[in-house]
Amino acid sequence: MNFGQLLTAMITPFDQQGNLDKDALEPLIEHLLSTGTDGIVVAGTTGESPTLSTEEKLFLFQRVKEIVADRAYVLAGTGTNDTRYSVELTEKATTQGVDGVMIVTPYYNKPNQEGLFHHFQTIAKATHLPVMIYNIPGRCVINMDPTTIVRLSSIPNVTSVKEASGDIEQIATVIENTPENFHVYSGDDSMTLPIMSVGGTGVVSVASHLIGRDLKQMMEEFSAGNIQEAATLYRKLLPKMKGCFVAPNPTPIKAMLNELGIITSYPRPPLLPLKESDWNKMKQLFSLV
Predict the structure, then answer these.
(1) Is 109 exposed, middle or buried (0-12, 13-18, 19+ CB in 10 A)?
(2) Per its UniProt entry, which superkingdom is the organism in (predicted)?
(3) Any residues with CB less than 8 A from the CB of 77 and at least 6 apart, and which?
(4) For the chain, which terminus, N or C, has the lower number of CB atoms within 10 Å?
């Protein structure tokens, strides 16, 4: 299952009181679709999933798919560090009409590689939907070894991986040893072009909330064989990609969306609004000063 090149790890809009801002979903989604997004990941890390209740997640899965319809893919973030709960949430998400699920590496409890394989295999069996596995050692402490990813790629509905290890050798090994119809997506905006250069498909992006058209153009140029043009765009966009993480994600993105008048959205504690010093950096990067 190819979900396209540009997937956006969508923020979850909250109002100033920390409640889910349901009215903000449609303008946010329309903005993403109009700026190049091929697919939307709902209730992932950028969606502040640890702070979302099960009821909120299920509402988001259904409502986002309802708004998107058949204009893009919708992936539900159903992975946690509890295999049993992840299975239950995946089963429920499957009934909400989404196009796939994304399952993050279990965090905090630090399973070994066999435990990781069992975790993902068990969840994949709970749905007929395509499964994107998600390797992000920076948040989950453990790295999913290439051999584990390759083993998982033999499961029919495990069709892709979001790779945020930052290890290009590991990523190349995965691409070399998985089936041609298994897709590797960058989990870091700044690694998009390097990963595509070794055979990756695209990116699950945070920066696409703000520079979606440019990211899409960069990938299309590369895919068309216009390597120099893609590289020039990459170098131009790199400071903005990195700038989206001047503070804990998605705080900078939410501040920019507010400033640009796309939606009004606040982070949910324990994340706090952007500090003035970080906001000044964002304004300079995005030419708002």
Answers:
(1) exposed
(2) Bacteria
(3) 41, 42, 43, 44, 45, 47, 49, 57, 101, 102, 104
(4) C
> pLDDT, tens digit, for every residue of 222-246?
999 999 999 999 999 999 999 999 9
What is the distance between the alpha carbons of residues 283 and 256, in angstroms, rounded to a whole number? Answer: 8
Please, which pLDDT band fits residue 287 given cuts at 50, 70 and 90? confident
Write out the H or E segment, with its range, that includes residue 6: strand 6-9
Please state the rounded mean pLDDT for residues 103-120: 97
Does residue 146 lie within any of the structural domains?
yes
In tens, the pLDDT along 193-225 reads 999 999 999 999 999 999 999 999 999 999 999
Overall average pLDDT of the 252-257 stretch = 96
| CA–CA dist 205, 185 (Å, integer) | 9
Note the pTM of the prediction, 2 decimals.
0.96
Catalytic residues: 134, 162
Q: Which domain holds residue 106?
A: 6-234
Total number of domains in the chain: 1
Cα 154 to chain centroid distance, Å, stands at: 23
Task: Give tens-digit pLDDT for 161-184.
Answer: 999 999 999 999 999 999 999 999
Tokens at residue 241, please? 């990609």
Distance CA 57, CA 10 (A): 13
To the question of whether residue 204 is assigned a binding role by annotation, the answer is yes
Question: Which DSSP state fits 76?
Answer: E
Q: Which domain CATH number covers 188?
A: 3.20.20.70
- 3 state DSSP class of 40: strand
Is residue 254 included in any domain, yes or no? no
Cross-strand pairs, 39: 7, 73
Is 87 known as a binding-site position?
no
